[in-house]
Design a protein that fits this description.
single chain, 216 residues, alpha/beta, TIM Barrel, eight-stranded parallel beta sheet, 8 strands, globular, binds D-xylitol-5-phosphate, binds zinc ion
């Protein structure tokens, strides 16, 4: 399975419907939604009204990445707003079990994310309960940063761990991804690659997506 999830954080917010429809017509199967609260990360992105506008413009799989403290407070509302998957950060909550339960009760898929300095080992006890793990390959907060190469080893380690206790776990990677590193990330065991600036900054975004999907 190879999936590209363009990050709407890099879209033109003055032309949000146009950019969402462009992605809707591309080979990208998912749309990645970055929600930031200015507390968990030093940046504020957008919330429910903007997400709902994106949801209205595309029936594709909405992959919501919460970079907010106490994510357990908002998971149900993102589900109601049309999320298909909600991913929260293990570093942002003391109640990961409540986050997972909130997603399950709301009937959406659930993912857990780790920042670049958080080891894969913290995920072990949660893996059987998760649909996905999101490995951050930049410090969360901003698009357009450089890919951190040690993420590749983390993906390999996570794939090996998941093969033992959660073989159908989806691994997603986010940050600094383009056709230059997509091939090695898929080969390491990732199935979903998030890409913001390499898609929306390209002259031809649909072609940039095709190139990542075909990368060796
Ligand atoms: C960063 C976000 C990413 C970001 C990726 O905190 O989680 O999804 O939009 O942007 P690029 O692909 O430009 O690194
Ligand atoms: Zn993200």
């Amino acid at each position: 399975m190879r999936i590209i999830a363009p990050s709407m954080l890099s879209a033109d917010f003055g032309n949000l419907e146009r950019d969402t429809r462009m992605i809707d017509g591309s080979a990208a199967e998912w749309i990645h939604i970055d929600v930031m609260d200015g507390v968990f990360v030093p940046n504020i992105s957008f919330g429910f009204p903007v997400f709902k506008a994106i949801r209205k413009a595309s029936p594709k799989f909405m992959d919501v990445h919460l970079m907010i403290v106490e994510p357990e407070r908002y998971i149900e509302r993102f589900a109601q707003a049309g999320a298909d998957m909600v991913t929260f950060h293990i570093e942002a909550t003391e109640h990961a079990d409540a986050c997972i339960a909130a997603a399950r009760n709301a009937g959406v898929k659930v993912g857990m994310s780790i920042k670049p300095k958080t080891p894969v080992s913290v995920l072990e006890k949660w893996l059987p309960e998760l649909d996905m793990v999101l490995v951050m390959s930049v410090e969360p907060g901003f698009g357009g940063q450089s890919f951190m190469p040690h993420s590749i080893d983390k993906i390999r380690e996570l794939r090996a761990l998941a093969d033992k206790c959660k073989p159908d776990l989806t691994i997603e990677v986010d940050g600094g991804i383009s056709a230059a590193n997509a091939g090695i990330l898929f080969a390491a065991g990732a199935e979903v690659l998030v890409a913001g600036s390499s898609v929306f900054g390209a002259e031809n975004p649909c072609e940039a997506i095709d190139k990542m999907l075909a990368a060796q």
